[in-house]
């Protein structure tokens, strides 16, 4: 909404110039003024300081690997008091985070659910932006099940030359070499286990990892965030999972992935009709390790979840008119609030059990 207001202001100014016949003469100074005006307002944003005490969760990416012009890859930002954490970093998510008014420099750590490319594609960029924006002197903690060491090491290596360029250009005070990249914080997930375990406790925040069923991908987890009596659960990618249902018990917000087989079948058929054999095979395979909206609704109902939010939506939903087709029978199964996420949504769960609030930051 803020960005819309800014566009309206700029459009009105431009129209005024056109009306007075000064469009060509005034275009350059108008552009200089507009740049200064909007950059100043952007730099002055203090979203994190303005948020009420409590637990907040936002969508820095609500999409999937399939091309979607309005959605970045999967990314959930969780704010607990002064702490800021990101769950997964899909392609384009770091930029969406910045557009939402949440500086990468303020990120305290990153949690990865698994190591599919669409969940880690933006990791290098977020690590870089956090380091550059905050002049951090220690690398970013990156939490995940076994294998996270390899992922983090790979990004650190890939960005090694970039790191050296930036230190040389901006100096060690602005870009302290010791703060570059990520530091893996692995935890062990046993095959076949349904046990959850706490992976972080800090200043009243408890983060619990639980196994999910994304076979043949292993390891794969989801996360539950508990803070001052409020709770947010992020599914990651999964087929229906008993451990997820248990972890979501009584949660205020459940961010659950969703794949609608009826719509994905349309993608498969189109691929077949156009000779795209590989794409057709992928569209036939992916329903087996994702969750339908109806199944997610049953999980939310049985767990006593207060609000179900679908993210990582498959296929891309290019208009709200597709939401009913995507949801299918989910609203008749889970009668609480259901939201089909879009980038920039921020859910606020104030302390003391006050009413949840939703803002759209983009």
Descriptors:
362 residues; alpha/beta; seven-stranded mixed β-sheet
Helical residue percent? Answer: 25-40%
**Secondary structure category:** alpha/beta
Q: What series of H and E elements makes up the topology?
A: HHHEEEHEHHEHHEEEEEHEHHHEHHEEE
Summed up, the helix count is: 14
Strand content: 15-25%
Largest beta sheet: what is the strand line-up? 6-5-4-3-2-1-14-15
Sheet of most strands: 8 strands, mixed
Shape: globular
Describe this protein's structure.
- The protein is an alpha/beta fold.
- The chain has 14 helices and 15 strands.
- Strands 6-5-4-3-2-1-14-15 form an eight-stranded mixed beta sheet. It has a seven-stranded mixed beta sheet with strand order 7-8-9-10-11-12-13.
- A hairpin with a 2-residue loop joins strand 7 and strand 8.
- Helix 10 packs antiparallel against helix 11.
- The longest helix has 21 residues.
Short précis:
The chain contains 14 helices and 15 strands.
List the helices and strands and how they pair.
Elements lengths: L1 H18 L3 H21 L3 H4 L3 E8 L13 E6 L2 E5 L5 H7 L9 E3 L5 H4 L2 H12 L5 E6 L2 H11 L1 H11 L11 E6 L9 E6 L2 E7 L9 E7 L2 E5 L7 H6 L5 E7 L1 H13 L3 H9 L7 H11 L3 E8 L8 H5 L2 H4 L4 E3 L4 E6 L6 E4 L2
Parallel strand pairs: 3-4, 4-5, 5-6, 10-11, 11-12, 12-13
Antiparallel strand pairs: 1-2, 1-14, 2-3, 7-8, 8-9, 9-10, 14-15
Helix pairs in contact: 1-2, 10-11
């Amino acid at each position: 909404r803020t960005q819309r207001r800014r566009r309206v202001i700029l459009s009105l100014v431009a129209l005024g110039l056109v009306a007075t016949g000064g469009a060509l003469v005034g275009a350059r100074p108008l552009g200089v003024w507009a740049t200064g005006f909007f950059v100043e307002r952007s730099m002055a944003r203090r979203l994190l300081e303005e948020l009420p005490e409590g637990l907040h969760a936002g969508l820095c990416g609500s999409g999937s690997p399939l091309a979607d012009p309005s959605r970045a890859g999967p990314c959930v930002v969780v704010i607990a008091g002064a702490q800021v954490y990101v769950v997964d970093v899909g392609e384009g998510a770091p930029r969406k985070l910045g557009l939402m008014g949440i500086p990468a420099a303020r990120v305290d750590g990153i949690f990865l659910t698994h190591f599919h490319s669409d969940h880690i594609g933006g990791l290098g960029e977020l690590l870089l932006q956090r380091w550059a924006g905050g002049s951090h002197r220690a690398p970013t903690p990156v939490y995940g099940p076994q294998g996270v060491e390899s992922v983090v090491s790979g990004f650190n290596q890939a960005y090694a030359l970039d790191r050296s360029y930036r230190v040389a250009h901006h100096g060690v005070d602005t870009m302290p070499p010791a703060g570059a990249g990520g530091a893996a914080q692995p935890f062990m997930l046993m095959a076949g286990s349904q046990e959850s375990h706490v992976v972080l406790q800090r200043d009243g925040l408890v983060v619990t990892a639980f196994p999910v069923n994304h076979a043949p991908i292993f390891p794969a987890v989801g996360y539950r965030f508990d803070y001052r009596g409020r709770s947010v659960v992020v599914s990651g990618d999964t087929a229906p999972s008993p451990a997820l249902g248990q972890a979501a018990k009584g949660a205020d917000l459940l961010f659950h992935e969703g794949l609608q087989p009826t719509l994905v079948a349309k993608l498969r058929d189109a691929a077949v009709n156009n000779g795209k054999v590989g794409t057709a095979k992928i569209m036939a395979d992916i329903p087996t390790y994702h969750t339908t909206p109806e199944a997610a609704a049953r999980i939310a109902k049985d767990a006593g979840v207060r609000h179900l939010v679908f993210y990582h939506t498959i296929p891309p939903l290019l208009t709200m008119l597709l939401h009913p087709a995507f949801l299918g029978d989910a609203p008749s199964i889970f009668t609480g609030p259901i939201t089909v996420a879009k980038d920039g949504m921020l859910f606020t769960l104030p302390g003391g059990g006050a009413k949840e609030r939703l803002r759209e930051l983009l």
